[in-house]
Amino acid sequence: EVQLVESPGGLAQVGGSLTLSCTYVGFDFESHGISWERQVPGKGLEWVADIGPGGRKIVYADSVKGRFAISRDTAKQTVYLQMNNLRIEDTAMYYCVRDRFMSTEKRGQGTQVTVSS
Description:
By secondary structure, this protein is an all-beta fold. The chain has no helices and eleven strands. Strands 2, 4, 5, 6, 9, 10 and 11 form a seven-stranded mixed beta sheet that branches. It has a four-stranded antiparallel beta sheet with strand order 1-3-8-7, with no helix packed on it. A hairpin with a 4-residue loop joins β7 (68-73) and β8 (78-83).
């Protein structure tokens, strides 16, 4: 069974850092891209970052470029989102997603990140 499980998010202060992880089972990371998305209540999903199949291509949304870093550890079957210099507007539910917008799309259950001043 394909599963993506995000680690608990957490609470950080403005300017602080948090690292999210997404552990996947049931598929070969080398063949699939993983994305991070986030959502604020009442608003649509916002794409945050992509790491392509095998980790060969990494892309960030302008809103997080230079502050967030996506990476993967194939041996641990885990994708990470390192979030630095956090802002209030980074507060959201974060989701890891396999094959975003494709027929094989699979989403994790989400993890809450809250940034306070």
